[in-house]
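The material for today's practical consists of a large collection of protein records. Read left to right, the backbone structure tokens trace the chain's path through space. An example says more than a description, so a record of this kind follows:
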Amino acid sequence: MVKIAVKNLVFGYNSRRILDGINIDVKDSEVMSLVGPNGSGKTTLLKCMVRILKPQGSILMDGRDIERMSRQEVARQVGYVPQSSSTPLATTVFDTVLMGRRPHIGWRVQDKDLDIVAEVLERLHLEELAMRDFSQLSGGQKQKVLIARALAQEPSVLLLDEPTSNLDMLHQLEVMETISSLVKEKGISAIMAIHDLNLASRFSDKLVMLKDGKVYAAGAPKALLNEINITQVYGIEAMIMNAMDRPYVVPIRSLAEAAACEG
């Protein structure tokens, strides 16, 4: 079943069009990765989907236009992790993650809310940092806490903008494995803007390849990650390897370098 659908979405600043006629859909229990070079529109598309930006076209969740949903309804269903986020200086990690429960909390925090926060901290191996000041954490630690905050929200749709950008390889795998397992366990949908094509290939059910604000191609990693698409979208020569029944991209050289060598 389609959880969220983007139809004929257009967005621009002044006369410059950033997104042009985007059509995508994401099903329950599916991880979709938005890939493409810088400036292709990945972050802008996520911001449109969470109503930070107001595009033309429509975004449907369970068949309902999100523009007709209240802010509270959207907040309960959509968890969003931006590339960076400001948090009050004196907030502990536990309280930062507890903020994810805000759309569900009435007059006071319930035991259920505390249990959910504790469970998420444990899944992301953050329990030892629970009482630490968020502002004193490293960039990678902050990124994991922000992901934990979104997971504590228990959304039906999870939007993540470069969730692994500040993490080392171990923590990249840890975060991606957690997201992937929760998507399957909870039947939710996840959409990620991500630069790392190999992480996208490993953990995604579907890729959407963006170029110049348009969908260049969409489909399973096996179908999309080939030498022709990589050359056309990224302007590089690459070799495609296969492991664990997934394609992996090995960059070789830019087309400019290739042309210079041939010349």
The chain has two domains: 2-87+153-224, 227-263.
